[in-house]
Amino acid sequence: MASDSHTWNLVFLQLLLEELGHRVTNLGACVPDDVLVEECRRRQPDLIVLSSVNGHGHHDGRRVLPALRACPELLETPVVIGGKLGITGAADGDDTAARGLLAAGFDGVFTDVGAVDAFKVFVQRLAAGVPA
């Protein structure tokens, strides 16, 4: 996302998805919204994964999701977000942010201790044809 400059977490996610048998395009850190949307339109991925560690994921996610959903070719593409979504550091803050992001239209939100395992299950279900 545009405000998030982490790299190692993105590499971890890429390797995890590749280990699960998927081809990954990692756009890197600090991707401007318009670049993210255009690359997704051009590539038409099976899944869009947004990740945040700086605590602005809730705001960035709510801002970029409508732009992704405004593209007819991405309307049905599952979009998920994970990581640190708020700056309070409190688990209940992430729970509140997660509920808001799901209500805004994200297909999955992964924030807690079991987030990696839950994300893996989500990806495996999509690969098996189970709708998000």
Description:
- Residues 1-132 form the B12-binding domain.
- It comes from Streptomyces kasugaensis.
- This is Methylaspartate mutase.
- The chain has 132 residues and is mainly α.
- It has a single domain, classed as Rossmann fold.
- The chain is 48% helix and 10% strand.
- The chain contains five helices and three strands.
- It has a three-stranded parallel sheet, with helices on both faces.
- β1 (48-52), α3 (57-69) and β2 (79-83) form a beta-alpha-beta unit.
- The two termini are 22 Å apart.
Features:
single chain, 132 residues, mainly alpha, Rossmann fold, three-stranded parallel β-sheet, 5 helices, cobalamin binding, Cobalamin-bd
